[in-house]
Amino acid sequence: MEDERDATEAERELDEELAGDIDEDDTVEREREIDDAELREFEDRLRDSEAYEVEAEVFDEPTLRALYKLVSDGHVRAVGGVVSSGKEANVVEADGREGEVALKIYRVVASSFNDMRRYLEGDPRFEGARSKKELVVEWVRREYSNLRRAAEAGVRVPEPLAHERNVLVSEFIGGGGVRAPQLREVEIENPETCYDVVVEYASRLYDEGIVHGDLSEYNLLVHEGDIVVIDMGQAVDAEHPRADELLENDCGNVARFFSSLGVDTSRDEVLKQVTR
Ligand SMILES: Nc1ncnc2c1ncn2[C@@H]1O[C@H](COP(=O)(O)OP(=O)(O)OP(=O)(O)O)[C@@H](O)[C@H]1O
Ligand SMILES: [Mg+2]
């Protein structure tokens, strides 16, 4: 009884916090480990990048600090152009330690945090973030760990390389600053083979105890004859209360897309193959 009340109370407080404008000053103050002059000099260097010219607002103060750290640690050498700007995140191409990397830069202020929280709270790995910013940091950490687990399960994903606050660094899928196309953007010569690969990947994830949660022709890239699974922030553990619902939805997306290309399948058929 007592616990229940505490939980509701905590949830209400979090809701209030998420609803209001978050005052970053306090956090930024505490984390001011980089000298201001150093940071301004870093920002001046960044200004030359294509991404900065196009979308300067991506590089807010906390993001600058995260990037500064990634550069100091050698994960990033130079920032290139924006390859995607979405609701939750911008993806920017950059030079990394050993070639091109993708920086997925989450927006801290404009994300749908109630959604994030719904995914995070059913995750046994999640211990409960307190502020809005902490939720994003936790989200990025989880996306990194999901990508790592997927790779270990034999699923082709962008190799996760590093993460810092709201920025995830991974292998760049594409070349010369140009992102690889999404599955929906290419003409598929052999839908059956392609379907088999997608089902196999979903099945490997499932065996590893992961449900992607947003599997569709938008989050599958086609690169050098391979299919690459991306966007795993929302992926959940098979133990998650919403895992079944998300899995059915993923299988439904796969069935719909490949049926439209003439593959004889259905949501239940995909579900059966993924969970067999
Ligand atoms: N590692 C990568 N290499 C190359 N391109 C990438 C990479 N990661 C993401 N992209 C590109 O950026 C796009 C958006 O990435 P992603 O799907 O991970 O973000 P998202 O969560 O869907 O973002 P939003 O929902 O805010 O649009 C992808 O469709 C892809 O074109
Ligand atoms: Mg996506």
Describe the structure.
It is built from ten helices and eleven strands. The protein is an alpha+beta fold and 276 residues long. The chain has two domains: 2-175, Phosphorylase Kinase, domain 1 (2-Layer Sandwich), CATH 3.30.200; 180-275, Transferase(Phosphotransferase), domain 1 (Orthogonal Bundle). Helix 8 packs across helix 10. It is globular, with a radius of gyration of 20 Å. It starts with a helix and ends with a helix. Residues 1-5 and 14-30 have low confidence and may be disordered. It binds adenosine-5'-triphosphate and magnesium ion (MG).
Give me the secondary-structure topology.
Layout: H1 2-19, H2 25-30, H3 36-46, H4 50-54, H5 61-72, E1 76-85, E2 89-96, E3 99-106, H6 113-121, H7 132-152, E4 160-164, E5 167-171, E6 174-175, E7 178-179, H8 191-207, E8 210-211, E9 220-223, E10 226-229, E11 236-237, H9 243-259, H10 267-275
Antiparallel strand pairs: 1-2, 2-3, 3-5, 4-5, 6-7, 8-11, 9-10
Helix pairs in contact: 6-7, 8-10, 9-10
This protein binds adenosine-5'-triphosphate and magnesium ion (MG).
CATH class of the largest domain: Alpha Beta
Specify the CATH architecture of the largest domain.
2-Layer Sandwich
Domains counted in the coordinates: how many? 2
Q: Output the strand order for the largest sheet.
A: 1-2-3-5-4
Order of helices and strands: HHHHHEEEHHEEEEHEEEEHH
- Count of alpha/pi helices: 10
Query: Could you say which overall geometry the principal axes of the C-alpha atoms support?
Result: globular
Count all strands and give the number: 11
First and last CA, distance:
41 Å
Strand content: 15-25%
- Assign the CATH topology of the largest domain: Phosphorylase Kinase, domain 1
Task: Using the CA coordinates, give the radius of gyration.
Answer: 20 Å
What small molecules are bound in this structure? adenosine-5'-triphosphate, magnesium ion
Whole-number mean pLDDT: 88
Which class best fits the helix and strand makeup?
Answer: alpha+beta
Residue runs with pLDDT of under 50 for 5 or more positions: 1-5, 14-30
Looking at CATH, the homologous superfamily of the largest domain is: Phosphorylase Kinase, domain 1
In this structure, how is the largest beta sheet organized? Answer: 5 strands, antiparallel
Helicity range:
40-55%
